[in-house]
Structures are given as C-alpha cells and as structure tokens.
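Before a colleague's protein record goes any further, I have to sign it off. Alongside the sequence sits a line of tokens, each denoting a local backbone shape. I want your independent view on whether this chain really folds as the tokens say. Where you disagree with what is written, explain briefly why. This is what I was given:
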Amino acid sequence: MRSVWALAATAALSLLAFSTTTFAGEPKQGGILRMYHRDSPANASILEGATYSVNVPFMGVFNNLVIYDQHIAQNSPDTLRPELAESWSWSSDNKKLTFKLRQGVKWHDGKPFTSADVKCTFDLLMGKSQQKLRQNPRKAWYSEVDDVTPNGDFEISFNLKRPQPSLLAMLASGYTPIYPCHVSPADMRTHPIGTGPYKFVEFKANESIKLTRNPDYWKKGLPYLDGIEYTIIPNRSTAILAFVAGKFDMTFPTHITIPLLKDIKSQAPNAVCVVEPTNVSTNIIVNSSSAPFDNIDIRRAMSLALDRKAFVDILFEGQADVGGTMLPPPQGIWGMPKDKLQTIPGYGPDVNANREEAKKLMQRAGYGPDKHLAVKVSTRNLAEYRDPAVILIDQLKSIYIDGELDVVETANWFPKVARKDYMLGLNLTGNSVDDPDQSFYENYSCGSERNYTNYCNKEIEKLFDVQSQEIDTNKRKQLVWDIDKKLQEDVARPIIFHARAGTCWQPYVKGITIMSNSSYNGFRYEDVWLNK
C-alpha cells in the first residue's frame, strides 16, 4: 500500500474551527460556557441535520475518524488530522482507504468503540442498514463507496468504486460524526451518545440545550469546561442585548451582521469579535419541475435581475463576496477567479442592461407590464433568510414578478424544500467542507435529497465524476471552474452572494478561534477555557 500514514494527534487539539488565538496563562479547569442559540433544532441527530443549528450544540458530543486541524484557519487537504482513527493509508490504485482505529475509547454509556461502530455509521449513511435515518441529506457524499469493511476490531476499510481523493475531506466534516451501533437512530435524535468531550444532558425544544464534561474523554485532561449551556433565543437583537449585558459568554458562531457587530463594539468595547466568510451561499431555489419555473427563460430572467452588489452593500456594508457555487478566493480554494465569473450572464456590472435582457425573456414567457407573475417566496424564519428575501422580492418587481413572503419555521423548512413543496425560495446553502465533491454531488446531482430545485443534467453530472477523480489540484481547479460556470449558466440555483459574519466572545473566554472557509468543521470547544 502507498504510505500516506498520518501521525497521531497531539494532545489538546482545539476542535473549535476558528483562527489562531494567543492564550494568556495556563488553561483553567472548570466553569460553564454560556451561549445563546439562534433557533431550536428539529432534533439532536447530526447525521440527519441539514443545518449547523444542529452541529454547533451537538458536535461536542462526538468524534470523527479524521478532523481538520482546528488551529489552522483555512481547511485544506494538508490540514487533515487523525481522531478516532490513529492513521490511514490509500491503496496503490486509490480505490481503498484503510484506517487503523484508536483503542481504549469508550462511548458515554461505557461501551467500547470498535470498527463495528464505524461500519454501522456508514451503512446508515449509505442506506444499507435495516434501521433508517429519517432524513439523510448527505447520502450523495458516499455514492462512490462500494462498502465499508472491518478487519478486526480496530481496522476499517472504505472500498471505492473509483478513486475519490475528496473522501477524506468529507470524513473530516463536522457533519460526519461516528455513531454507536448499539443506539438506534430514533434514540440519537432525543438522547445522543458519543465519544466526545461532552455528554448530552438535555434538550428542551425552544428553551435550552445542556452538555456536561465527559470525565472519561480519551484526550486526557480535556475538556477544560465543566459544561456548555445554550439558551434558545430566535430574536437576534434580543440575544445580542443579553450578550452585551454579560448574560452570555459568547454569541452564536458566525451569526452577527456587520452593522450589529458595530453596535456590540460600541456597547461592549472589550468584547473580542472577528468577521470571516462562512462558506454559506445565499441563493434562489426554484421548483424547476413545476410551472412556471420549468421555463428556463423565467429562471434566467430572475438571475439576470439580481443586483448582487446591492445585497452586499445593504446587508454587509460591502463586506461579503460575489461568486458562483464554490466559495470565492482567497479564502475559498476552489472558487472561480473574478475574470471568469464576470463572463457569466448576470454577473457583469451593468445591472440595467441585465434587467432589460431579463424583461425580454419574461415577455417571451408571456409576462409583461400588464401581466405580472405572482409567486410566494418561501424562506426560513431566521433573519439571515428573511432579510435578503425582502430585497429579492423588491428586485424581482423590476421584471414583472410580484413576490409575497412566506416564512417557514426551521423544523419545517428543510423537510418542505426537500419535498419540493414550494414555488420559489430564498435559501442559504452551507457547504460543510470547502471541496467540490461535497457541493456538486450534494446540491446538484440528480436525485440527491439536498437537490432542492430538481435540477438534473446528466452531462454535467458526468463532469462531476471527472473532476472528482483528478488528483492534480491545479488540473482539478480548471475542471471545477468550468463546471461552476455551467451551473450558473444553467440557472441551477442562482447564487446571490457568499456571506461574511461575525462572532463575539467575552475577553475572559480563551481558546476561541474562527475558521475562514467553513463554520461547520468544529464546534467541540474541548480546549476552550474561562479565565475569570
């Protein structure tokens, strides 16, 4: 086998995905980290979650096989580190990935962790087990995995149908915890059992989530905190006022807008705040299999009508990024360069010219000044969704589309769009790793649960496979850029902007760092501590 063995993780890897922070003094044991949560997740099961509202509170309960180095601000293939796996290697044909597993790890209920748990987890994700996940948003990630086979209790192999270098990146996502074989998927929704630094205590819907320190954590001496408590406060202004008043130690990660960040700094000048890209795109989803949006002229008109700069200026005071499917550079590794992006219809700077072209397309579809298209614009009941949805409705008026805002609660939003029970929507798509395979297969492949628009182009899907197998990064980038351009030209899911957002914490909170290209890859807080 070709050796790509990784060294074992050193003690005290920070598993909160953020940028480097200098610690003052020695870490202290004890204390409860108090944080508000932006809304009430549907349940506690990360494998079934389609939002980081689940990752943030529950990732600390679990471990992955591998994880991104949480001290390095930008996730990349070079920053992968072992976790429940001690090491890994690829076969010479790049079609078999084998992990040697860590021994002596226990689940929170005292049962031992073995290779059987890894197999059970991925059989669940691939839909091969008798027990089923209620929702399986990331099943498409593992479409090229033929099977997962144990070799004794502490070795496991992923056997692939063809080479897929990005498999490691997806295994390192915050969405890929290892579940125990002996706990049912139903029980994991209400009382998750993991191997991580914190044990689940309780989840009261619309009230709070509580975790407590795991005294038997396999990383000796960690975590430093005695526990973490999340108070669910959907109103962002109310939550921020409570943070400023000292009722919380930290805001919900990457939840603060640029204007609100200025308010926090004016009222709590000692607060530590950072702004980073979130690897979350704000986009339009259209039910392209139903009239009137089965007409590509209408979809293209909507894309041409967008004034992306206005969204960025209004919502972010200029601090957000315009791009295609992949996160724009320099934080994004795979995003299109600006000169290529501006060759796509609708991305050029002349908004008025774009809208005149859009009006012609709408008139060809049978609409005009005397016949407007009335639609409901569905979106999730969070400020991050509602605010851009209002701007979108205003901009669509310029091309004879009259939108009515349809606000949907979080627990219902993802099931609703997965059922295609909508006409037009304003959506946020969080990419849990900065890798094309994750984005392309999950959001654009025919039949994927997260392909909310019913977009299906078999020719482009073949190109997904071509780029996926390319080992040379520079060659792969060119392939990815060409695919991304085609997706935008096809109006598969028009991207409006890529958000930047702030996170703040009180100055006595130590060990916090914020990731620049994915806010989904570490909220374990295992070496966060309070210097009170």
